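Q: Sequence in, structure out?
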Amino acid sequence: MEQAARRAVILESAKVLFAQNGVKGTTMGDIAAKTGLAKPVLYHFYASKDEILEEVIRMEIETLKKNINQGLDELDSPLERMAKIWANAIEFYEKDDFLMHIMRGNELGLPPYLHERYVMEIETFVVELLQSMIQASIDQGIFVECDSRIAAYIGYKIYQAGTYAKTETLKDFTPKQIMTKTMRIMGFGILNQRPPQDKT
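A: Exactly. Output:
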């Protein structure tokens, strides 16, 4: 087996174990056993469990970014592109929920500094992507003049609350329903439908 293929097997096996048992509940021995490699061979590729963990998370974040961007260039309307971002994110998390273990209150048991770093990286990426589309809509007269970064942040937080934040309030809605309703809330808030002039 080529080295790249062995690394891929190690990372996929470790990802499953981290999701099942958390970081503290997973050992290098567990990872070696699941991959079918001897521990010395595993240590040839990775010096520690933490090194494997960081590479697994990095791999997952890069896959998320790639999936969220998929198909956006084919759409001209910023509104359609925003809807596509949400749809892509939901589709990704339905197939691979590993990052949800980080976003939902640090279920993996990461060190706090690592947890904060990865949560902020994902948030910053999505907010900046949304901001660019909201600003494009403002420039085209589709949305009212507003602070595009704040609007993007609000949209992200609405989505977050409805899809992976720990809350009972929205338990009756599916992630896809939350995405649709989020888009409507965003639309009502910033679509270019100005109120009538006050004549008093």
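The chain has two domains: 1-47, 56-190.
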